[in-house]
Design a protein that fits this description.
This protein has 142 residues and is of the alpha+beta class. The protein is 20% helix and 27% strand. It has one domain: 2-Layer Sandwich (Heat Shock Protein 90).
Amino acid sequence: MSVDLEIIVTADRQILLSAVSNLVQNAIKYTKRNGYIFLRGELSKDRIIIEIEDQCGGLVNDKIQSLFEPFTQENDDRSGLGLGLAITKKAVHLCQGKISVENIPGKGCIFRLDIPQKLEVVPSAKSAVPGKDSVQPKFGKK
């Protein structure tokens, strides 16, 4: 594990935790016997980069884009529903970030989260509770 201990993130704790924990659980599930899992975190300007690297043996390249689609399972282990990466992608999006995967053929994968250090919120015109202000994430141009 290589994580910069000076990193401070202002985001929804539960949403960010669900994204990271799902990726770590997948890494544990798919890493081959006696393999390793690496977790890295670094601050890059005003962005946080979180990487989860596994030793799953790599992916079939033409399957990488479909990994984040609901009900997709690209491995022989069908013990889940195929929703984890779709949920993770949505969670990262709600944190105003991006997720990507780097395939290392014959070795494994690196899932990379790129999120802002501070979530930018703006008041919403609609409120879920009458009389209360609501905040929604402000999404920048892609």
